[in-house]
């Protein structure tokens, strides 16, 4: 399903390439700072968790930061639905460890599946939005 979404998204992008982008001269620098903060937080958290012997929590941490980084992007890009996907991905990250423990799964399995579903739903929504 993800491959299909990526292919359709690529086709839509190619067909609408000349219609502009939500990342422009005004939003571009702020977008870059938000992504830079996201990358730094992911890296610092992953290093800290590894040094603390909690490597199984690295995917959970990264999913949480990825989810949270969508919150400031929603108003910046003028796409409020990003806040919904931000909340869903962050929620998946927060519940993944207790769910993994209860079901005897690894945290990465739970957070990976949950985040994948949330982001795929977000991609489908964005695709519908782009086509309408």
Estimated structural class: mainly alpha
Number of strands: 0
Shape: globular
Largest sheet: none
Query: What separation lies between the terminal Cα atoms?
Result: 21 Å
Q: How do the helices and strands follow one another from N- to C-terminus?
A: HHHHH
Uncertain spans: none
Whole-angstrom Rg: 16 Å
Question: How many domains would you count in the coordinates?
Answer: 1
Helix content: over 70%
Strand content: under 5%
Instruction: Figure out the total of helices.
Output: 5
What is the residue-mean pLDDT, rounded to a whole number? 91
What does this structure look like?
- The protein is mainly α and 132 residues long.
- It has one domain (26-131).
- Helix content is 80%, strand content 0%.
- The protein is built from five helices and no strands.
- The protein has helices at residues 2-15, 28-51, 58-77, 81-103, 107-131.
- The longest helix is centred in the C-terminal third of the chain and has 25 residues, at 107-131.
- The radius of gyration is 16 Å and the shape is globular.
- The two termini are 21 Å apart.
């Amino acid at each position: 399903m993800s491959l299909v979404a990526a292919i359709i998204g690529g086709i839509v992008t190619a067909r609408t390439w000349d219609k502009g982008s939500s990342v422009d001269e005004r939003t571009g620098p702020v977008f870059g700072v938000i992504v830079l903060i996201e990358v730094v937080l992911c890296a610092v958290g992953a290093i800290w968790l590894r040094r603390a012997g909690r490597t199984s929590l690295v995917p959970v941490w990264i999913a949480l930061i990825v989810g949270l980084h969508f919150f400031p992007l929603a108003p910046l890009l003028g796409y409020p639905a990003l806040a919904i996907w931000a909340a869903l991905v962050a929620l998946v990250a927060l519940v993944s460890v207790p769910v993994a423990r209860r079901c005897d799964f690894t945290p990465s399995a739970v957070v990976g599946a949950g985040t994948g579903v949330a982001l795929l739903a977000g991609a489908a929504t964005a695709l519908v939005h782009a086509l309408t």
